[in-house]
Design brief:
Blueprint (H helix, E strand, L loop, with lengths): L2 H19 L17 H4 L7 H19 L4 H20 L12 H4 L1 H24 L5 H25 L3
Helix pairs in contact: 1-3, 3-4, 4-6, 6-7
């Protein structure tokens, strides 16, 4: 087995366990829930096959759905983010950069990586909370859920990426 596959599998398991055992029980101000498992999609390297990103992300979303009792919500949202991740990453890197480039603060710089993460988190939170709430009559709660969870998760991802060495 490839060491990169084992690292990816370990990150998958760690983020899944952290989400279902700890982070799903945190609801800051009743609106903001940290959705740290989206970091899994953000960490794919530039040259990783697009079909591989879709499969890994769908499986993580499905696993979160199974343990969180949210049938298909996380799987659909993770698949959408996985579909857009390579194209969003191309906005922030140079065309002639290495195929093994992994997006991070050290490779993209703080501001470009921050924008990259914000775009992907908004792309995740918008369908996630739209499907979960499935009600546009309470648009204030819907908007606060999207904004609060995006801000909280972006802060956690920036801290985690700053601590991660690679």
């Amino acid at each position: 087995m490839d060491i990169a596959f084992l690292r990816r599998l370990l990150l998958f398991v760690i983020l899944l366990l952290a989400q279902v055992l700890v982070l799903n029980h945190i609801h800051l101000f009743d609106y903001a829930t940290p959705l740290l498992y989206v970091y899994f999609v953000i960490t794919f390297k530039r040259g990783f096959p697009k079909w591989g990103i879709l499969v890994w992300s769908f499986l993580l979303g499905l696993s979160v759905d199974i343990f969180s009792n949210t049938p298909g919500v996380a799987a659909a949202s993770m698949t959408m983010v996985a579909m857009l991740q390579p194209y969003v990453m191309e906005l922030f890197i140079q065309r002639d950069s290495d195929e093994e480039l992994r997006p991070g603060i050290s490779t993209l710089g703080f501001s470009r990586y921050l924008y990259h993460v914000i775009i992907l988190m908004l792309t995740y939170c918008l369908p996630f909370f739209t499907i979960e709430i499935f009600d546009f009559f309470n648009w204030k709660e819907w908007g606060l859920n999207i904004l609060g969870s995006t801000v909280l998760t972006v802060i956690l991802i920036m801290v985690l990426d700053n601590l991660r060495k690679e």
